[in-house]
Amino acid sequence: MPVDIEVIIERALEQAFAKALEQVVQNKAESLFQKAFENGSPLSQKLEAKIEAGFDRFFDEGIRWEKKKPGFKK
Question: Is pLDDT larger for residue 58 or for residue 27?
Fold first, then answer.
């Protein structure tokens, strides 16, 4: 089976382009998200409120402060 070097090069260039484009888009998106989540922004405040609510719930429901007694509760 003959090897078509032009096809191999074309595929490699397409893959390299796709990978580079993906990296650029990801970097741009990260930059936009960082701006959106800057201190004091509405999105940052909303995220902080959600985190605090989850933190409170974790302490209320996720931590056992007392050792459970053996047996089943009715």
Answer: 27
